[in-house]
């Protein structure tokens, strides 16, 4: 059926009016970010360093972006997810370790004796992490981590842990990569644990994941080769450990860094101390309804010194409650 | 002036005949490789793993290629170039270290007393490397290395050390990258020293250089931040150290590996132990005229166990004298 020309044109206009907002949404690389100060700062920065011939232009090879993981790319409450993994693994592995029934902090962890466990402190936690993260090959450990990530559920949301990643940060990672940035994780989390999901969930390949590191040993046994994980901490990728590992492994200073806690302070300082235009950002957990609200007094992910440094240095501080249209991918945007 | 059509066509044919070999040369990604067994093995492998739909196809993300540096990408005679750098730096820095005049192995090194120096062995060499490679920031050390690389000359060829890179290997690096491979250095050389020239000379960015590693410390002094290099060996990237660092830093198994000495054996074994089609190559120094000839009995770059493993495993062994049309970029091809 043919319409008179004028009618056709009007129908076309009406259609366009319907479709335009969808097109605009499709073209928006950061749809989960409100048009607030953080989004504006990110977009202005990326435009500045990618505009050829502009005074702030930076060659693609130098566009290194580093992200903390816990509390920056995914949630970290009520405890670091990797700690929940270690406690779960301890239970799974307990039948092969009858001695744990008598030894602290294993006994307390297996019995759910939170008070004794808490008393064992960071040293106790490290023992649990080492016991569950070593004594097998890297390949086997990745399988263990993936099995847990596929099956375990978060204690309050009931979601898989890999669902509890921040949708606005996923968009930010994509946006930076589309603008020629190489995106890295630089996190206190153990590096092989993060590699078990970083590529699938964040689009960050194993070789761009830096983290806390255990000792390892190349082993040949009955003609089979493996890399065995040793119960020994060789690098704690937190605080000063972050710029140290960045210098050791990446070998150049990042142009862009995002964190959320005092453990990220030195990484952000190191990033900003370079020449030219640079970007430092913090996720500020201000949203008790959709996620959690905590900062200067939190036990997990304390944000105190880094928040003060951000205020002094004019870094970007993301107010999660106000600036994120949604927190998790499974939510509808508001 | 117009020619009769037939004459024009004949002139065009004659021109084509003249130009064709040049076009073929321009299209050849490996012009310095004779059409011998190594070149054929490389090309067959790359074609197999990059042919979409083929049974040996490997996704680009998994195309990790690792190269040793000393003896594989550049020469290593009469001594590792980094050792020559360390000895030169020792002399340059001596005025600030009057104590070296009395201390071995520094005294012997400064006086050119080869016998005493040799007696101090690997431990003595390590002392000299640590003394000249630490006690300053990473940024300062890179400047020192670049200054030496810009000014020092090889004792027998009189060339700059960065001219003594292997032209066929430069072509191989380019060829692999053009086929979607990510090229890495994994070398016993100290990592920051290699980063001082790897990007410019090999096209390998700092974050794809893995090597022997010193301790480092993030330092804030009078408001200035730096990464200070410590006189402490934290990783020896040789032998079993290579698959260990590959697993720790890259986090996946290479698909393609090239070395030249027994220090590369485990890296090559680790590469070949994975599933599917894989490539292991050795540069065999057989060319006493253009480079050096050495293998099973050499003190530098000994190739003994790895050569036997290559023969057993059907790895590619490059006969430098026969298979390379030229060794260095400054030579004309033969």
From TrEMBL, chains A, B:
It holds the Pfam family HAD. It comes from Aeromonas bivalvium. Gene3D superfamilies: HAD superfamily/HAD-like. It comes from the Bacteria. GO terms for molecular function: hydrolase activity. The keyword Hydrolase applies. This is HAD family hydrolase. Keywords: Hydrolase, Signal. Residues 1-26 form the signal peptide.
